[in-house]
Amino acid sequence: MAGLTAQSPLPTDIVVHQQSHALEVAFSDGQRFRIPFELMRVYSPSAEVQGHGPGQEVLQTGKREVDLLALDPVGNYAVQPRFSDGHDSGIFSWDYLYFLGSQQDELWQKYEARLQQAGIDRDTPMSSAGGSACGHH
Predict the structure, then answer these.
(1) Alpha-carbon distance 18 to 26, whole Å?
(2) What is the topology classification, in CATH, of domain 37-129?
(3) Domain residue limits, the chain
(4) Per residue in 44-90, pLDDT tens?
(5) pTM of the model
(6) Which residues on adjacent β-strands are paired with residue 70?
């Protein structure tokens, strides 16, 4: 994802909804999104999930019940979530959160297609779905 530009909408409000497992983000352009923790987790921008290049993405599974333990600010441009499964290396820029929120339907479809292609259920534990491609975890 590209970095922030002068036209990038900035968050005006961020609310963690533990009960519904969603991050609600309101932006300066009037858009408001509820991004499920699971979607954030399976599309984490970290190397652990994205790999180190095209085609190296690691399919994430078993994340339906993942919780958000903390949401730490990173400068004035991003947040770093700490998830209940121990994942904490993804830095989510405002642009990336906007992308996740605005493209949720398409992203869910891509995720479901990748699961189907791999012959894996979304609730399959990660250990049986394969390990990390880069050995960080």
Answers:
(1) 17
(2) NE0471 N-terminal domain-like (3.30.2020)
(3) 37-129
(4) 999 999 998 888 999 999 999 999 999 999 999 999 999 999 999 99
(5) 0.88
(6) 82
